Amino acid sequence: MSKLGNLGARLHHGEIGYDFVKNRKIWYGVSILITITAIVGLAVRGLHMGIEFQGGAVFTTPKNMSVSVATAEEYAEDASGHDAIVQKLGDGTMRIQVAGIDTKTSDKIKDTLAEDFKVDAEQINAELVGPSWGEQIANKAWQGLGIFMILVVIYLAIAFEWRMALAAFVALIHDITITVGIYALVGFEVTPGTVIGLLTILGYSLYDTVVVFDSLKEQTKDITKQTRWTYSEIANRSINSTLVRSINTTVVALLPVAGLLFIGGGVLGAGMLNDISLSLFVGLAAGAYSSIFIATPLVADLKELEPSMKSLKKRVMAKRAQGGDADEPQAAAATGDYDDEPEDAAPAVVGPRSQPASRTRGRGRPSGKRR
């Protein structure tokens, strides 16, 4: 743990670093590939909409029946003539979902299942679900998503600038697309729990992004008054300085969600936990990735299009060409070693840094007490 803490401190102070922004084309390519895979999965397999969105009936069997899930699914499909979804719950009961049936059909299916399971029909609980309820939930979810996106873009544009707002918006779309695509590929049901999970990950996705943006905003004050490094290099330093914090918060958030997904949903068989935890797990991981590899590099690309940033880059390149050592400026931008600024350089403060002790302090002063 002490080594990890030392690593975080060295990253924060700029003693070490990885050039994320320089390799941004690789990250863009990886994200495009993952997004295309998610879209193809969504187009080919489609979303497996839960009964709340389609309408139908839910049958709950008695506890500890000596019937397997596969057998129960076969019984339900034969009795209804529709596809059935069977889940074994943690208390030993089975939840059987059959979409697209009415009340009369539900009663017949209930009687048939009672005969197949060799139990009294009164022991099987049947509930009808109308599709209008799920449609209302879907509409409210879309409205909430739209309002959230608009408010986020407005806030980030005011608090930071429109380029950061645009980059954050792209990162959010990236995270949602990947999460929905994973749902299509895995084949999990889309339930109201899924909608709740998707809306929840939006805040988590923005958290790391805003942390990096805040650091970037602080470190780029009066950036045009210096000629040591470009906007992209400072953006890279911002990522490195917040990297360990982002990783720590993501891991801490993923651990309980993984417990819900693999233990609560997989071992205990709680279907609703699967719906919520899968969207949270995928969304948290995608959000951490996009804040580091997508949002900040995209801001750097957009800022480098500004005339002032282009002019700054030319001046930085010209100064480096005169400096002799071409590798030294890049190392300074990655490590935060800013203490070699020439005396005639324009004063600038780009991020927090320690001022070196003057090398001429005390020279020419005689030892002993002053006279």
Describe the overall structure.
- The structure is a single chain.
- Helix content is 65%, strand content 7%.
- The chain is of the alpha+beta class and 371 residues long.
- It has two domains: 2-49 and 133-303, Multidrug efflux transporter AcrB transmembrane fold (Up-down Bundle), CATH 1.20.1640; 56-129, Alpha-Beta Plaits (2-Layer Sandwich).
- A hairpin with a 5-residue loop joins strand 3 and strand 4 (94-99).
- The longest helix has 37 residues, at 231-267.
The radius of gyration over CA amounts to: 29 Å
SS-based structural class? Answer: alpha+beta
**What's the pLDDT, averaged over the residues?**
78
Which stretches are low in confidence, meaning pLDDT under 50 for 5 or more residues running? Answer: 324-371
Q: What is the strand tally? A: 6
CATH level 4 superfamily of the largest domain: Multidrug efflux transporter AcrB transmembrane domain
- Biggest sheet strand line-up: 3-4-2-5
Number of helices: 12
Helix content: 55-70%
CATH class of the largest domain: Mainly Alpha
Termini Cα gap: 54 Å
Topology of helices and strands:
Layout: H1 2-12, H2 24-44, E1 48-49, H3 51-54, E2 56-60, H4 69-80, E3 84-88, E4 94-99, H5 103-117, E5 125-129, H6 131-159, H7 162-186, E6 189-190, H8 192-219, H9 231-267, H10 271-303, H11 307-323, H12 327-335
Helix pairs in contact: 1-9, 2-7, 2-10, 4-5, 6-7, 6-8, 7-8, 7-10, 8-9, 8-10, 9-10, 9-12
